[in-house]
Amino acid sequence: MDQPYSLWADWLTKFQSSSEPIQALWLLAGLLTLLGLAWLVLRALSDLIGLARRERRWRGHLVYGVYQDGQGRWMVYRHGRKPQEIDWANPPPELIGRGTVVQGVFRRPEG
């Protein structure tokens, strides 16, 4: 009686019949694949643990930000400069689209 087809046996036969450099490449590719999968699993686990602990890791520097100070003024922070109050008569181009434009006049967002 014939044996059922085995993909693993077929691949092993082809692996043994190939040249030594090709066998070395197959072994290296398998090792790199396992290392990559282990890295992905560990990275996912560390991200999940970080989310569970509610850790916030910043991966860069603040370059630009808008915030409201204690006096209710909207301030713009740009990297390397002092915070400046927003001039609502002539808003910076970064804020266009954040509020509403009514008859050509920019209205700051309510809130």
Describe this structure in words.
By secondary structure, the chain is α+β, with helices and mostly antiparallel strands. The protein has two domains: 7-52; 64-107, no CATH class. The protein has helices at 7-17, 20-52; strands spanning 64-68, 74-78, 84-85, 100-102, 105-107. The strands form two sheets. It has a three-stranded antiparallel beta sheet with strand order 1-2-3, with no helix packed on it. The longest helix is centred in the first third of the chain and has 33 residues, at 20-52. The chain starts with 6 loop residues before the first helix and ends with a strand.
Q: How would the global form be characterised?
A: rod-shaped
Number of alpha- plus pi-helical segments? 2
User: Could you estimate the helical fraction of the residues in percent?
Assistant: 25-40%
From the alpha carbons, calculate the radius of gyration and give it in angstroms.
30 Å
The quaternary state of the protein chains shown equals single chain
Note the beta-strand portion: 15-25%
Low-confidence stretches: none
Concise synopsis of the structure shown:
The protein is α+β, with helices and mostly antiparallel strands and 111 residues long. The protein has helices at residues 7-17, 20-52; strands at residues 64-68, 74-78, 84-85, 100-102, 105-107.
List the helices and strands and how they pair.
Elements: H1 7-17, H2 20-52, E1 64-68, E2 74-78, E3 84-85, E4 100-102, E5 105-107
Antiparallel strand pairs: 1-2, 2-3, 4-5
Notable features of this structure?
alpha+beta; 3-stranded antiparallel β-sheet; two-stranded antiparallel ribbon; 5 strands
